[in-house]
Each structure stands twice: as C-alpha cells, then as structure tokens.
Amino acid sequence: MILPSASGFRNNYGPALLTWGQNTNGEVGNGTTRDRRLPFRMGGNLRWKSGSSGNNFGTAIRENGTLWAWGNNSLGRLGLNDTTNRSSPVQIVTATDWSIVDSGGGHSIAIKTGGSLWLWGTGTLGQLGDGTTTSKSSPVQIGSETDWTAVSVGAQHSLAIRGGGLWSWGSNTSGQLGLGDNTLRNSPVRVGLGSDWLLVEAGETQSFAIKTDGTLWAWGERTS
Question: How are beta strands 197-202 and 206-211 bridged, if at all?
C-alpha cells in the first residue's frame, strides 16, 4: 500500500510504503521473517511512488525512479540476478527511469518512462513474453517498442497496452489471453483489432480491461 500525504494523517516524509501479513520469505520487507499483524512502514522515511505484491514477494518504485524488490526469490523473481531471498528491499539494476511495475504469481512486469517494456522472474509458461519458456533473474526488455502505457500480470499470464492496442501472452489454460483458444503464447499477441483500450488487470486465470469509452470487459475462467 502506498500512503500519500493527506489531510488528517501526519506524514512528514511524503508517500509511504506500508506492508503487513505473512512473512515466511521476508515478503513484508522489514528485515525479518516474522509475520506482521500491523502495517510496517518500509524504508523509514523513503518516498515511494507505487508498489505491487506477487506470490510471497513485492516490488516498488521510489519517487526517484529506482526499482526495488524483496521476499521470495525462487527462479529469480526479484530480478536481482540470483535466487537468494531478501527480507528488506534491494534495488533492481541501477536505472532511475522506472514508471510502472506490477507483480503476479512469480513474475513481474514494468514500464520505463520512455515507454519500453521489461519482464523478469518465472517464465516456464511463456509469461515473460521473450519468446522462450525459461525464467529470467534480471529484467529483460521485450521488443524495441517505446509506446507501452499500461500493464498487469496474473498468476501465469501477462497483459499490456501499446498504442491503444491490447496484447497478451503466457498461460492460456482458461482462455485468459482472450485469443479464442487455449494455446500458450511465449510472445505478445494482439487481442483483436481494437485500439481503444485504456487499462488492464490480470487475475489468476481471468483478465479484465477498460476501454476509453468506460466499458468494462472480462474473459478467462469463470468462477462462482
């Protein structure tokens, strides 16, 4: 959770990153592996812009554009070029131009301020979109396009918007890629021909999106 400065809440250091819950793998980021029942202010007085939680790990972007990760690091899901768990935030690479990050089951997706698309972590079902089914322990750029604007990752699939077009890849067991079949894709594939997509959200085996006209769309596994 990112908590901004607001009337009625004393926050002298700008947007704060708060975490809590199960902490077996250090996913709370407080330097321990003890569960946390109350919110913990990660990084003390550091200023954060956005954050996301995956399966037993987390990622976040500071206001200075740096990217950080902590928690379980199985298959390199933290993007730190190793598989060692971290109980406190560690910076991913040295770049200072990260804009958006989202984490899912075991992989993460991010956009830089210039619009380039990057993924890392578990890739055994093509969810990294790099044309393989292998995992990556550090961020890998997908394609050379620089007009990506929105992203989201689910348990084993990924969604992104570029130039108003919707793209998907990864596991497709329940049709969560929206391509009219159940075939896995290990590279981004355009969903339909529409160019009016605005936002995306990937669930475990479902996908959701909003168009520029405000309409809501959903596909994938239907659960009661």
Answer: antiparallel
Helix ranges restricted to H, 22-152? none
Judged against a pLDDT cut of 50, whether residue 5 lies above it is answered with no
Share of the chain above pLDDT 70, in %: 93
Query: Which residues, in sequence order, are CB contacts of 78 under 8 Å at separation 6+?
Result: 57, 59, 69, 70, 71, 72, 86, 90, 92, 121, 137
Element (H, E) at 59: strand 57-62
Cα–Cα distance list, 190 to 76, 169, 179, 186 (Å): 28, 9, 8, 13
Confidence at residue 166, expressed as pLDDT on a 0 to 100 scale:
98
Q: Is 26 left (phi over 0), alpha (psi -120 to 50) or beta?
A: left
Question: Helix, strand, coil proportions of the chain in percent (round to 5)?
Answer: 0, 45, 50
pTM confidence score: 0.93
- Single out the residue of 192, 224, 222 nearest to residue 207, CA to CA: 222
Apex 53 CA angle, 118 and 183, nearest 5: 55
